[in-house]
Design a protein that fits this description.
It is built from eight helices and eleven strands. With about 375 residues, the protein is an alpha+beta fold. The longest helix is centred in the N-terminal third of the chain and has 35 residues.
């Protein structure tokens, strides 16, 4: 059976028509919001399905003309191009039908921590953060720094930021993991190449509706904020440490002078970490076999190496090497890594869907 006439497509088109009628009838309030959201999700699939159906109908019409002495030659010529178009449409529709990550449209909480390598690792963490800032700026996303722990040379032991923009998480989630750098540090007098690392974690930004936090589950401590070298940032107890007792997750925030603002920022990070924890538990229950696939976000996995002497960046998950180190760190060529990662995950999902469909058909035989 053609994908254009599969049972799932029939159901989607039927539901899309129902939504069109319901919205045209003039629903309002929460019902309008709910139906509009569902309509927006189904619209690209429905449009592609209708386009594919029209092409399949045109193919049948052309095939009926093949034996016509006058029109057969023209029909044959048009049919070859149409079959290529149908193959492309089917592929595009298959991609649209792949399981969607419900968090993909959300903003992201970006956490970068220096790993092995001391001061050089902290400087590399700062390089990575600047890379993501430039990438976000180029895509029109907004970056809000939530907290930092800086070193004397301008590196980051840790930096946490919110990146706000539609689809930010969908693209940045592939950055989760261990990033390794190979270069001669500025502090190295012998010219030796050092290897350092930084860990990147990308979490979907969670709203209050995404994760419910009970006040009784929180232990909140306040203390006096201090800056680099131990000097006091202010003389009041404005810094906040929140412990989520059931999970043991601890978030500290002292970047603001206001205790209220620090608490709000700490809660923002806590929500994101709890949301990600819940999502991870659900994903592992649903599909344990997919843990090792692209986009799993395994933070212990070395995902990329930045080699300065050779000017190259290698993503180890897909064995991709680009000799565009400066452009990648400037955020300009980061898409040249992210796009192949997305394509790889789509290929894996397509293969899994095809295998699942084949097994289902065998079960019916």
């Amino acid at each position: 059976m053609s994908l254009a006439h599969s049972g799932r497509i029939e159901e989607i088109l039927k539901r899309f028509s129902e939504l069109e009628r319901a919205l045209a009838a003039g629903v309002s309030g929460e019902e309008y919001v709910r139906l509009s959201r569902e309509y927006a999700e189904l619209e690209p699939v429905a449009q592609k399905a209708r386009e594919l159906r029209a092409a399949v109908a045109e193919q049948a019409e052309l095939e009926s003309l093949l034996d016509d002495p006058e029109l057969g030659g023209m029909a044959r010529a048009e049919l070859a191009a149409l079959k290529e178009k149908i193959a492309v449409l089917e592929r595009e529709l298959q991609l649209l039908l792949l399981p969607k990550d419900a968090a993909d449209e959300k903003g992201a909480i970006l956490e970068i921590r220096a790993g092995t390598g001391g001061e050089e690792a902290a400087l590399f963490a700062a390089d990575l953060f600047r890379m993501y800032q430039r990438y976000a700026q180029a895509r029109g996303w907004r970056v809000e720094v939530l907290s930092t722990s800086e070193t004397e040379l301008g590196g980051y032991r840790e930096v946490i930021a919110a990146i706000r923009g539609r689809g930010a998480y969908a693209r940045l989630k592939y950055e989760s993991g261990v990033h390794r750098v190979q270069r001669v540090p500025e502090t190295e007098t012998g010219g030796r190449i050092h290897t350092s690392a930084a860990t990147v974690a990308v979490l979907p930004e969670a709203e209050e509706v995404d994760v419910h936090i009970e006040e009784k589950d929180l232990r909140i401590d306040v203390f006096r904020a201090s800056g680099a070298g131990g000097q006091h940032v202010n003389t009041t107890d404005s810094a906040v440490r929140i412990t989520h007792v059931p999970t043991g997750i601890v978030v500290s925030q002292q970047s603001e002078r206001s205790q209220h603002k620090n608490r709000a920022k700490a809660m923002q990070v806590l929500r994101a970490r709890l949301f990600e924890r819940q999502r991870r538990e659900q994903q592992e229950k649903r599909a344990a076999e997919r843990r090792g696939q692209i986009g799993s976000g395994d933070r212990s996995e070395r995902i990329r190496t930045y080699n300065f002497p050779q000017g190259r960046v290698t993503d180890h998950r897909i064995n991709l090497t680009l000799y565009k180190l400066d452009e990648v760190l400037a955020g300009e060529a980061l898409d040249e890594i992210i796009e192949p990662l997305i394509a790889e995950e789509q290929a894996l999902l397509l293969a899994a869907a095809t295998e699942s469909g084949r097994n289902a058909r065998h079960g019916e035989d």
